[in-house]
Design goal:
The chain is mainly beta. The protein has one helix and nine strands; from the N terminus they run αβββββββββ. It has a five-stranded mixed β-sheet, with no helix packed on it. A four-stranded mixed β-sheet has the order 2-4-6-7, with no helix packed on it.
C-alpha cells in the first residue's frame, strides 16, 4: 500500500514543497504550496493571485510575508472562479495564512494576519 502512495505522489503535479519567493505581482500555478512574499523598501506593494480552485482540489497553500515601510501584499482568487470569499490584506511583518482548496472554495485553515 505504501508503494501506491509513493507512486501516486510521484505522478502528481505538486511542486514537492519547493518554496516560491515573490516580490511582485504573481499568479500561482496549480500545485504551488509554500509561498514567501517580501514587500519592503526595494519593492512595491503587490498582489498574489491564487491558482484556479477546481484543479487545485486537495492542495494546501501556505503564504508568509515579510513587510516593511507601510507596504502590503494582497491575496486574491483567480478571477475566473471566485474561489476565495474575501481578498486577504497582509500588511504586517510575519502575517501568514494557510489555505485549502475544496475544489469549489479556498478555505482558511489558519489565519495569522494581524
Amino acid at each position: 500500500m505504501a508503494q501506491n502512495s509513493v507512486s501516486a505522489r510521484q505522478n502528481s503535479n505538486l511542486r514537492d514543497n519547493v518554496p516560491i519567493f515573490v516580490t511582485e505581482d504573481t499568479e500561482l500555478e496549480v500545485g504551488s504550496q509554500n509561498v514567501f512574499a517580501t514587500a519592503n523598501t526595494a519593492s512595491d506593494s503587490f498582489t498574489i493571485t491564487l491558482p484556479p480552485v477546481g484543479p487545485s482540489a486537495g492542495t494546501i497553500i501556505s503564504i508568509d510575508v515579510t513587510i516593511a515601510d507601510a507596504k502590503d501584499v494582497q491575496v486574491e482568487d483567480n478571477r475566473a472562479d471566485a474561489g476565495l470569499p474575501n481578498d486577504l490584506d497582509m500588511d504586517a511583518d510575519g502575517d501568514n495564512v494557510v489555505l485549502y482548496s475544496t475544489g469549489v472554495l479556498w478555505i482558511e485553515l489558519f489565519n495569522g494576519i494581524a
